[in-house]
Amino acid sequence: MTPRRLLTLLPLAVFLAVAIYFALALRPERDTQALPSAMIDKPVPVFDLPSLADGPNLSQAAAAGEVVVINYFASWCVPCRIEHPVLMALKAQKITLWGIAYKDKPEDSRKFLAQSGDPYTRIGVDRDGRIGFDFGVYGVPETYVIDRAGHIRKRFVGPLSREIAEHELLPLVRALAKP
Predict the structure, then answer these.
(1) In the chain, what are the domain boundaries?
(2) Average pLDDT over residues 36-59
(3) pLDDT tens-digit profile of 71-94?
(4) Quick one: fold of 32-177?
(5) Which residues have a Cβ under 8 Å from the Cβ of 151 and sit 6 or more positions away?
(6) Pairing mode of beta strands 97-102, 68-73
């Protein structure tokens, strides 16, 4: 084959490669919501965030010995508003739920929680997103389950639904809380 003939086949080869990639990526059994996290089973990043309210800073050291659910949220985040009733239901379940206001103005976060209700036990402010970067946050909302030893055990990307909370998050939290 001449180089000119090979050059004419190049668009077909590129098209076939892209078609095969999408066929594999979009197969029905693949969970398109799952985003890999290198942090699973790793220690929680060291952090010390100022409190949104008048209280002690939010730090990983404060979680020592207990199971904690950490939820990244922002007042400007529409999916955060969608998941908010689920977080309020988790509060009613007596889950230790910490909030981290991600790249949000503290006054906007306070206003959002005053209007919608505050599901959090404690809230830290990650104004520049540095701690979110350390966690591997892609965007808000994201929720992490931390075990008693301070390791990230599960990551939920996107808004929590009642089904995910009831069938995945709560059973995991309860299992990790057992002595």
Answers:
(1) 1-30, 32-177
(2) 90
(3) 999 999 999 999 999 999 999 999
(4) Glutaredoxin (3.40.30)
(5) 41, 42, 43, 44
(6) parallel
